[in-house]
Specification:
alpha/beta, six-stranded parallel sheet, 6 strands, 187 residues
Length: 187
């Protein structure tokens, strides 16, 4: 797993249907700035580009700001397929220069840890020296994350520019919960 601070390029692959811009005072420019800030706070200080995936009639012109590329991609399966393909092409264009440069791939999507094909691709990239970052709209603290993932955010926290969850803490909490369940079952 690639770790540490990086001035390498980061590309955010964002499923806008799964993780929409929250209602209220948010707009695409603010979301983009907050994500950049959250990444910088974690030590990912290089250039940040975003690719927003969603149904063509539901992606609005406001997303067309500098730094965000809008990709109409249809239903969930089409969006995930498009994101996987784009992650691979982006990795070809932004090779890791291990151990000097660790490009960063961030995937923002609901239940991404359940998509085994996508996880295989991300695992292979991690083995090649990429930092893998995830954000999910669900309660990711209760989800066991693959070892190759460097950081995980809850979408509502990321969109505010907040900190990622403590992956080791969520794994410890999960282990404690399993132990409790086993001791209850044994009684």
């Amino acid at each position: 797993m690639s770790t540490g601070r990086s001035t390498a390029h980061t590309c955010v692959f964002w499923d806008v249907q799964d993780c929409p811009i929250p209602d209220g005072d948010y707009n695409p420019k603010l979301v983009y700035q907050n994500i950049k800030s959250a990444l910088a706070d974690k030590g990912y200080c290089g250039k940040v580009n975003m690719r927003a995936y969603g149904e063509k009639n539901k992606i609005w012109d406001d997303l067309l700001i500098d730094g965000i590329t809008v990709i109409p991609a249809g239903d969930k399966v089409a969006r995930v397929d498009s994101m996987m393909t784009d992650v691979l092409f982006w990795a070809l264009e932004n090779p890791s220069d291990y151990p000097l440069l660790f490009p960063n791939v961030m995937v923002v999507s609901k239940n991404i840890t359940e998509d085994t094909d996508f996880l295989e691709i991300l695992d292979l990239l991690a083995l090649r020296g990429y930092n893998i970052l995830l954000a999910d709209s669900n309660n990711v603290a209760s989800v066991k994350h693959p070892e190759f993932v460097s950081s995980v955010w809850l979408w509502t926290c990321l969109v505010d520019g907040g900190k990622p969850i403590d992956i080791s803490q969520s794994v410890e909490d999960d282990d404690k919960l399993k132990q409790k369940e086993l001791s209850r079952a044994a009684k």
